[in-house]
Amino acid sequence: MISSMTGYAVKTRDSERGTLQFELKSVNSRYLDFHFRVMEELRALEMPLRELLSGKLTRGKIECRLSFNQSGARSDHLEASPTLLATLKALETQVQATLPGAQPLSVGEVLRWPGMLGDQSVDFAALTPDVMALAREVLAEFSASRAREGAKLAQLIVDRVNAMRDIVRSVAPRIPEAQALFTDRLRQRLREALDSDAGEERILQEVAVFAARIDVAEEIGRLMTHLDEVERILQQGGACGKRLDFLMQELNREANTLGSKSALVEVSQASMELKLLIEQMREQIQNLE
């Protein structure tokens, strides 16, 4: 299975304690790079979440968001602590007796007083199983979205591989005949340009050297071999972005050499078309895991 580095998934889970939300999104990156946005009360879950995600993901800039909203049912039954209210009232009376100009506490200040509405902290131990279960669900959906896009990218690459094969097949049969014609013309021009004392052996040596320089059979062979390897890697699946990116460099090198050694306009044009297709493949490969 081929996976893209671009993906997105989000899920929520409701319980008596409140609502959890877990979100994953990613873009391409050379390495596996995590960015966590986790509420402070659940910060300790960052490490197990990192381990969970690292077990499934190998590349990409991953943004992970975890939030928790406590249940509204709890807020419907909030009651101020009678003991704490009495304590605050006694303290306020004592302060005003000593400092008559002191301002009384407002209702908001009283309600925000620590412990006034009971323990509102997040129950970390109770939430941990729910968070991890939700994270596994989101990760499965996230991986599936990356796989779907990866399959489409792989098909685009295969289409361009086939287009490159068609270009090579169309131009390759003409190369030997054209090179033979070109060397015959070169031999005739050398006879005319060189002194009459120059022997046939000298002319044949010059022609042989030039013929070797314009022979592109080796480049065409390597091109087809690299294209076979691209298809093999895509069929094998897995994390293949870096290997394919290396092959794009090799393909581009062969296409450049093909163009520089060309003795035919058709081969030069084929070299340009090949390089265009290679660049299109490289752009798609940049998004593969």
Strand segment count:
4
**SSE sequence, one letter per element:** EEEHEHHHHHHHHH
Enumerate how many helices there are, as a single number. Answer: 10
Q: How many domains in all?
A: 3
The structure class reads alpha+beta
Percentage of residues in DSSP E strands: 5-15%
Mean pLDDT: 83
Q: Give a short account of the largest sheet.
A: 4 strands, mixed
Shape assignment: rod-shaped
Gyration radius from CA atoms, angstroms = 36 Å
Helix content: 55-70%
Structure notes:
- Strands 1-2-4-3 form a 4-stranded mixed beta sheet, covered by helices on one side.
- The chain is rod-shaped.
- It has 3 domains: 91 residues, 2-Layer Sandwich (Ribosomal Protein S5, domain 2); 33 residues, no CATH class; 139 residues.
- It starts with 6 loop residues before the first strand and ends with a helix.
- By secondary structure, the protein is of the alpha+beta class.
- The chain is 62% helix and 12% strand.
List descriptors:
4-stranded mixed beta sheet, 3 domains, 289 residues, alpha+beta, Ribosomal Protein S5, domain 2
SSE blueprint:
Layout: E1 7-14, E2 18-27, E3 32-38, H1 46-54, E4 60-70, H2 72-76, H3 82-98, H4 107-111, H5 124-171, H6 174-193, H7 200-214, H8 217-236, H9 241-260, H10 265-285
Parallel strand pairs: 3-4
Antiparallel strand pairs: 1-2, 2-4
Helix pairs in contact: 1-5, 5-8, 5-10, 6-7, 8-9, 9-10
